[in-house]
Design brief:
By secondary structure, the protein is an alpha/beta fold. Helices cover 28% and strands 23% of the residues. The structure holds adenosine-5'-diphosphate and magnesium ion (MG).
Length: 338
C-alpha cells in the first residue's frame, strides 16, 4: 500500500507573551492511501495543532518550527499560502467538532456547497448542484433535493455534521481530517456518524484521520492508531495492537478510563491521576512521568526513545528498554493507575 502522508519530527509552537508553548514536540507518523488513522489523547495533547499543521492553518503566534509534512512526497511546510489554499478543499479537507464554525449561518446549504464545488472544480452551477445533492444523499440526508435549500440552523446537530461531511467530501479529497467530529453529539448520534464514516471509507477512496479524546469511540473504525500526550507520540500501532496489546502506561491509563459497555460486571472507571504537563515548561524527561505508576529515575531526566515492538507497533517508554524491570502494567492484569 502506498504512503499518502508522512509526518516527520513535527514541532509546532505558539510564541506568546508568556513564552513558547510547545504544542507539538516532535511527532512522526505515516498514513497510507485509503486507510483510517486515529489520533487519540486527552484534551491538550496536541491533536488539533497536529491537524492544523498538516492543513497549513497554524496562525500567529503559532509556527511550525521543525519537521516535514510529506503529502504524496511533497513537503507541505515549504508550500506558499496560495499553494496551501489550492490544496485545501481539493486534495485535503477537514471537518471540525462544531459544524457551525465551518458552515455559514446566513447562506443555504446549496449556496455553500455549490460555491465550494465551483471554486475548486471549475464546473457549472447545474453540475455543481447535482453533485452536492449526490453527496448529501451519500451521507444519509433524506430528501436532499429539498433539504439543500435549508439553512444550517434548520438541521439537527447530527444532520448538520452529515452536511459538513458531505461538504468536505464534495471535491473528492485524498485526505479527510475529522477533528472530534462526534464530541458535541449525544451518544446515539455519535454512533451513527461513526457508522457513516466506516461506510464512507469503503465507498470513497479517501484516507481519513479521525481525532478524538475518547479511545472508546474509535474501536472498529481505525486501521492504525497514534496515541498522543503532552505534544508527543506515546504509542502507535494497529487497532488490534492498541486495543489488545497496549504497551505504553499512558495507553493503558486511557483504556482503564473508558466504560466497558459489554461486560456484565460493573468495571470501575479509573481516571488517570494528575493533569497534563505544562507545555510552556515541558518536563525534561517523559511527558507522562509525573502521572505514570511506573516512573523510574531515567524517566524524569531523559525523554524516552521510540522503541519498535513489532512491524506495526512502537512505544516511547523506558519500560521497553532491555535493562528496565518487567512490570505487570497492562489491561488484563495490574492494578491500574490510581
Ligand atoms: N492558538 C493558540 N495559542 C496558544 N496556545 C495554543 C493555541 N492553540 C493550541 N494551543 C496550545 O497547544 C496545546 C495543544 O492544543 P491542542 O492541539 O488544541 O490539543 P488537543 O486538540 O489535543 O486537545 C495546548 O496546550 C493548547 O493550549
Ligand atoms: Mg482538539
Amino acid at each position: 500500500m502506498s504512503t499518502l502522508l508522512e509526518v516527520k519530527n513535527l514541532k509546532t509552537s505558539f510564541f506568546t507573551h508568556l513564552g513558547e508553548i510547545q504544542a507539538v514536540r516532535g511527532a512522526s507518523f505515516t498514513l497510507n492511501q485509503g486507510e483510517v488513522l486515529g489520533i487519540v489523547g486527552e484534551s491538550g495533547s496536541g491533536k488539533s495543532v497536529t491537524a492544523l499543521s498538516v492543513m497549513g492553518l497554524i496562525e500567529e503566534p503559532g509556527k511550525i518550527k521543525e519537521g516535514e509534512i510529506l503529502f504524496e512526497g511533497q513537503d507541505l511546510t515549504r508550500y506558499s499560502n496560495s499553494q496551501m489554499s489550492e490544496l485545501r478543499g481539493n486534495e485535503i479537507s477537514m471537518i471540525f467538532q462544531d459544524p457551525m464554525t465551518s458552515l455559514n449561518p446566513v447562506y443555504t446549504i446549496q449556496n455553500q456547497m455549490v460555491e465550494v464545488l465551483r471554486r475548486h472544480q471549475k464546473i457549472g452551477k447545474a453540475e455543481a448542484r447535482k453533485r452536492a445533492i449526490e453527496m448529501l444523499r451519500l451521507v444519509g440526508i433524506p430528501e436532499p433535493e429539498k433539504r439543500i435549500k435549508n439553512y444550517p440552523h434548520e438541521f439537527s446537530g447530527g444532520m448538520r455534521q452529515r452536511v459538513m461531511i458531505a461538504n468536505a467530501l464534495s471535491c473528492g479529497p485524498k485526505l479527510l481530517i475529522a477533528d472530534e467530529p462526534t464530541t458535541a453529539l449525544d451518544v446515539t448520534i455519535q454512533a451513527q456518524i461513526l457508522d457513516l464514516m466506516n461506510e464512507l471509507k469503503e465507498r470513497i477512496n479517501a484516507a481519513i484521520i479521525l481525532i478524538t479524546h475518547d479511545l472508546g469511540v474509535i474501536a472498529e473504525v481505525c486501521d492504525h492508531i497514534v496515541v498522543m500526550y503532552g505534544g508527543s507520540i506515546m504509542e502507535t500501532g494497529t487497532e488490534k495492537d492498541i486495543f489488545y496489546n497496549p504497551q505504553h502506561p499512558y495507553t493503558n491509563g486511557l483504556h482503564k478510563s473508558i466504560p466497558k459497555m459489554t461486560t456484565e460486571q460493573k468495571s470501575r472507571l479509573i481516571p488517570i491521576r494528575g493533569t497534563p504537563p505544562d507545555l510552556l515548561h515541558p518536563p525534561a524527561g517523559c511527558p507522562f512521568s509525573a502521572r505514570c505508576p511506573h516512573t523510574m529515575a531515567v524517566c524524569l531526566e531523559d525523554a524516552p526513545p521510540t522503541y519498535g515492538i513489532s512491524d506495526t507497533q512502537t512505544s516511547a517508554c523506558w519500560l521497553m528498554d532491555e535493562k528496565a524491570p518487567k512490570v505487570d502494567n497492562y489491561v488484563s492484569g495490574g492494578k491500574g493507575i490510581e
